[in-house]
């Protein structure tokens, strides 16, 4: 199995949230008064604080579900090595899993048994389509 790497703070995924007008106004008030540089700064801080408060529960869940945390890069060489060992990979990642753009569909089908990513999966459209029934 390929190594898992730590994600850099600059590795971001964009999300969209809906907030009520009053909550948004409260955030804007804190930004205006200089507590946060902008809305995004407030929301990131709030999320990080909540994740820190729930850190033990997250760690227990990761361990219980046998997941890896960070960045998993699956290269063509990784999958060819798995194929040579007659190994089928069950990928379980909290963070980001990337399948290299030069990985052919048939190699992915032969070596990836399942993909469970909590975060983001980056792969070609063809790979995602071919593995759609194996992606949880």
UniProtKB/TrEMBL annotation:
It comes from the Bacteria. InterPro entries: Arc_rbn_hlx_hlx (IPR013321), RHH_8 (IPR041088), Ribbon_hlx_hlx (IPR010985). Signal peptide: none annotated. This is CopG family transcriptional regulator. The lineage of its organism: Bacteria, Pseudomonadati, Pseudomonadota, Alphaproteobacteria, Rhodobacterales.
């Amino acid at each position: 199995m390929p190594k898992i790497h730590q994600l850099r703070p600059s590795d971001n995924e964009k999300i969209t949230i809906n907030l009520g007008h009053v909550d948004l106004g409260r955030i804007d008030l804190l930004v205006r008064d200089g507590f946060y540089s902008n809305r995004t700064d407030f929301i990131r801080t709030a999320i990080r604080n909540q994740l820190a408060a729930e850190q033990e529960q997250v760690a227990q869940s990761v361990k219980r579900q046998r997941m890896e945390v960070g960045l998993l890069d699956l290269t063509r060489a990784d999958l060819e090595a798995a194929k040579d060992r007659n190994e089928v990979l069950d990928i379980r990642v909290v963070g980001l899993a990337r399948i290299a753009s030069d990985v052919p569909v048939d190699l992915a089908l032969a070596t990836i048994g399942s993909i469970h990513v909590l975060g983001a999966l980056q792969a070609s459209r063809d790979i995602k389509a071919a593995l759609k029934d194996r992606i949880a």
